Amino acid sequence: MEKRKLKLSIVIPLLNEAESLPELHAWLKKVLDENGFDYEILFIDDGSTDASWEVIKSLYEQDQRIRAFRFRRNYGKSQALHLGFKEASGDVVITMDADLQDNPEEIPEMVRMITDEGYDMISCWKKHRKDPVLKKNLPSKVFNWAARKVSGIYLHDFNCGLKAYRKEVVKNIRLYGEMHRFIPFLVKQAGFSEIGEKPVKHQARKYGYTKFGSDRFVKGVLDLITLWFLMKFSRRPMYLFGSLGLIMFLIGFVAVSVILSIKAYKLYHNIPTHLVTDRPWFYIALTAIILGVQFFLAGFLGELFLQQHKRDGDYAVVDRVG
Ligand code: UDP
Ligand code: MG
């Protein structure tokens, strides 16, 4: 009996990439057909304002293995990937950028690493990056170094768009906010530890322009802080805020006790004394107690929020084909 063909889902988030799409589709189709894969191509139009959606619809006329979704507005790459992961039905799920910077020829080897070498996820590494040095390469090196330190995952390149996943992996991670930069981390958190890396060729952008401005660096650093926080305290916000609150509260409590004891002692022995409200320590103690209570509240709210809130995708789909 012939073995069932391996099915791939190629998930492609895109924002205003009309010029690249036909070329990307033809290239993908060539590689996937040559390698005998069964496949679907999922285009997620993240609110393009150019002709991207029309181009996708006309590509669908020629190729029904395309499935495409159009967001009402631009929700960001993470949300587009979220929908792609939800819809993907393949055994192996590939994500790639639409701008022809990721080379489809890398796909068969990445798939092989997953099916034959037991990896849960393969992330690509743009070893010789074809992007402007100061605008991208340097910030990205610093960012990746920090991400490695924080996450403990030794990847050279966290942000590369070309990645391959075993199906269970994408069905078990929840991508939210702008977390597409940290998917390897989410994967590790979900309990999949075989995360591999494949050096790939990288091409300069052919059409259009990058959709991420220079604020990406600042955002990246903020995301990294969130990441650190999540890693340490996401399960139990109370551990962080509760202990801060406890420390503050104790400082305040001890200070107030000392002030009041001194006062009581002096009154008892008829020693002349100031009003407690004239002492700076009184206000420091008061502030510490108030801060302590605030931290506690933050901890409680965090815990409540975690219990109530099931994070799901945050987008509206206005049109789809396939
Ligand atoms: N993209 C998207 N939504 C956005 C920004 C980007 O779907 O809000 C897509 C974009 O069209 C491309 C991929 O994400 O397919 C990577 O974006 P880009 O090439 O601009 O990033 P860079 O390669 O410069 O890091
Ligand atoms: Mg790009």
CATH class annotation of the largest domain: Alpha Beta
Question: What is the C-alpha radius of gyration, as a whole number of Å?
Answer: 27 Å
What profile does the largest beta sheet have? 8 strands, mixed
Helix percent reads: 40-55%
Fill in the CATH topology of the largest domain.
Answer: Spore Coat Polysaccharide Biosynthesis Protein SpsA, Chain A
Mean pLDDT, to the nearest integer, reads 89
Structural class: alpha/beta
CATH superfamily of the largest domain: Spore Coat Polysaccharide Biosynthesis Protein SpsA, Chain A
Ligands: uridine-5'-diphosphate, magnesium ion
Count of all domains: 2
Low-confidence stretches: none
Spell out the helices and strands N to C: EHEHEHEHEHEHHEHHHE
Shape: elongated
Q: Overview of this structure, please?
A:
The two termini are 30 Å apart. This protein has two domains: 7-234, Spore Coat Polysaccharide Biosynthesis Protein SpsA, Chain A (Alpha-Beta Complex), CATH 3.90.550; 238-307. The protein has ten helices and eight strands. The mean pLDDT is 89. Helix 5 runs parallel beside helix 8 and helix 9 (237-268) runs antiparallel to helix 10. The longest helix is centred in the last third of the chain and has 32 residues, at 237-268. An eight-stranded mixed β-sheet has the order 7-5-6-4-1-2-3-8, sandwiched between helices. By secondary structure, the protein is of the alpha/beta class. Bound molecules: uridine-5'-diphosphate (UDP) and magnesium ion. Magnesium ion (MG) binds at residues 97, 99, 101, 205, 210. Magnesium ion binds at residues 97, 99, 101, 205, 210.
